[in-house]
């Protein structure tokens, strides 16, 4: 099925072209096996920079990289765009919306999506930030709200349009809040001279008592101080429970009137039938070799080893991908499997121009040094020479001109 | 209304931020009048290069330029994003979907959209190419069809997915056909090694007996020869009348099975109530001063002077915009009006790499020289230093690498 050329080698199917899937594919490059990658998108999306696409700092294509380009030229590597629904481990087939595909080895790296925790009003009203599509939709929403506020003569409605409420104080929420505040402080007033930007508010609501919980308390505090200095209204211990009558509801009835609810408060593994995905966050349960079954592996955001749960970040997915790739080769050659051991390379989050926090082992850096480190590491991990150049160019342009040039509202649709 | 600051000056309202509207705004820069520009988009779109966005040669933002950036810093210039429905000349108000706006002078430069000539099957099935939204939608369609063809095991369906039918042999149709053929000839086979690209067909159907009717017969012939050399299946005297059962129908019953119908066959002026728009192509009738009424002007694709009809091209809109801007100032100062006189600066169309045709006065150029001229003129007219650089960069990259790097399918929407 699926028009894959017949091959004398056994077939590895990799579901997902994110960090994990790509690392697995790379590790299988010299394996001699047939590798088929499936993804519902035709491009790898560099999720750590989605917030910059949303705040018009980066072109969407700067952080998208066609999966076919990556696989190009590798012998017996194939890409197929399809939406996978699950797996039938009895028959060794992957099930998709457009047919089935047999595998000898399977690597499930299908990732996670936004978790609304069952709150349907919030799901319907809020803007998530887990894909380039969503980042562009958020960008459009920001500029639409500003344009509407500019036209609007009712003060209450204008306030509602100028309140941007970000829920979730992890890296995504923090980075987005910082970027939005900078947009307001530096860029937008020149574009909207008739609008009073002291009335535009960027809120960051966090359920727990500190931001960036994956970081040390010192970094959390630094982040809070920096965001407040940039004019972000940070509320901690603010648990959002509903969106009703145009307002965000938190802590049993407190309200912020807002047309712009941005939800960065949690993720849930993508739906996947046929494997035990009853672990926390709908994740698939794996063993210390990232295995679910005989020749079935799951890695990255969609997987959890309950014995030693790991954070859902790119580094884990990449390292698991490499481990699984090597182990598939080990199995083919009748060698013993290597256990997966995670090496934490540290975490970093940018807060604004010249402001970031970074933690690498015992090293804690903040401010300008952390910011430069952040730029450097992100450039390093972006795929493709052309994309690196584009991102550098966009960053340099914004840094020098204090401008975000990508403020056009663009949607991929037929007009009426 | 519309939150425009009160001013001691009279107000000029310009509807549309295309070539015509911008030229008028520019001519009014030193007028001392209050200028309000309204557009349903927040950016100027450089329509001549839409086909390159559609064929993944250019970033959408490279040919979009935020209108607020253009007006930025000009005293008493204001932009409002709104969808204009018409005008009430009795009360001197512009009507929009979100309220009314008074004017002292009005410049209608609202442009034109795709004309399906009442064929609703074609309207429903086809991809137009009159805005960046539509160009992106077409780009997505191209790559989706290729991905589907790659997966598909039914030969007939695969053929249908690989037939790209462009209707309309004007500049847009010709340029798009050339770009698609080059994509097929040079770029796509590396990305889809399992697909037989001799089966991908680019059709160009033209109702009349020659392509590029605005050009000399010699240029038309050159264009036809070039396109055929590039492997475009050009059909002349092929009048498309319907799209039914997955096929394009032309000349009373001939069929091309195709999932990809691209419609570049004609334009119709945008709907506009309150003015006499009963002329050919729904255009608003203007006099030799581009006037419709006392202090109401119409310019560009939406207007026609029946005494001396002009082609619906950027040059006409730009020159009319300048004329109208000057005449508004003349009226303010009690001076005589200047008649509009069109100066034809020539036409050009690109066919492919190193291939173009250009006609300037009596000069007819084709091939490499025309192509370089085409590049130069288009770069010159793109707004903004940053956009010029971006376009140059994208062009240089494609030229040197024989690659079109922007092949990611991206849509601005919330995911399911």
TrEMBL record, chains A, B:
EC primary class: oxidoreductase
Domain External alternative NADH-ubiquinone oxidoreductase-like C-terminal: 345-398
GO molecular function: NADH dehydrogenase (quinone) (non-electrogenic) activity
Domain FAD/NAD(P)-binding span(s) in chain numbering: 11-321
Superkingdom of the organism of origin: Bacteria
Transmembrane segments: 363-385
Keywords carried by this UniProt record: FAD, Flavoprotein, Membrane, NAD, Oxidoreductase, Transit peptide, Transmembrane, Transmembrane helix
Reactions the enzyme catalyzes: a quinone + NADH + H(+) = a quinol + NAD(+)
Keyword Lyase found: no
UniProt-listed Enzyme Commission number(s): 1.6.5.9
Recorded family membership: Belongs to the NADH dehydrogenase family.
PANTHER family: EXTERNAL NADH-UBIQUINONE OXIDOREDUCTASE 1, MITOCHONDRIAL-RELATED, NADH DEHYDROGENASE
Record-given protein name: NADH:ubiquinone reductase (non-electrogenic)
Organism: Mucinivorans hirudinis
